Amino acid sequence: MINHCRATPTLIWLHNVIVALACTGLRISELASRKWSDIRIDKRRLTISDKSEFTGPASDRRETKNSRSRHIPIHNGLLAVFDSLDQNGPYVFRGPRGGRLKPEAIRNILVSEVITPRSDQFPKTVSGQKSF
């Protein structure tokens, strides 16, 4: 999937998302809401803060599934992704048109542009079910 996205110029943004998801174990919605202020390159740490009780604008409210903040070490592969990204604007990852990344868009494009076209490379199981 990563190689397919890297080889397709219109899917470079998805390549970065897949690498980040693989290196962090974040949920898609958590990744989509990451801001540059969450990343400490010097300490090689990504902070996932629960701000569910935040009283400011709804767009700044970010929640974790278990309502706990956590710190994730930054893998070398993810560090390379961060280095390649434009750091203008508050959000780390951007969607296919350069706007704010939406979790549903990630899922839809991943299925339609990556998984479905490559499904023939993943044969059905013995019981005839899709393997991928």
Characterization of this structure:
By secondary structure, the chain is mainly alpha-helical. The protein has five helices and three strands; from the N terminus they run αααβββαα. Strands 1-2-3 form a three-stranded antiparallel sheet, with no helix packed on it. A hairpin with a 4-residue loop joins β1 and β2.
Which descriptors would you attach to this protein?
mainly alpha; three-stranded antiparallel beta sheet; 5 helices
> What is the typical, i.e. mean, pLDDT?
85
User: Strand sequence of the main sheet, in spatial order?
Assistant: 1-2-3
- What is the percentage of strand-forming residues? 5-15%
The count of DSSP E runs of length 2 or more, i.e. the number of strands, is: 3
Describe the sheet with the most strands.
3 strands, antiparallel
Number of helices: 5
Helices and strands, in N-to-C order? Answer: HHHEEEHH
**What low-confidence regions span 5 or more consecutive residues with pLDDT below 50?**
none
Helix share bin: 25-40%
**Through-space gap between termini:** 12 Å
Give the overall shape. Answer: globular
Structural category: mainly alpha
> What is the CA-based Rg, rounded?
16 Å
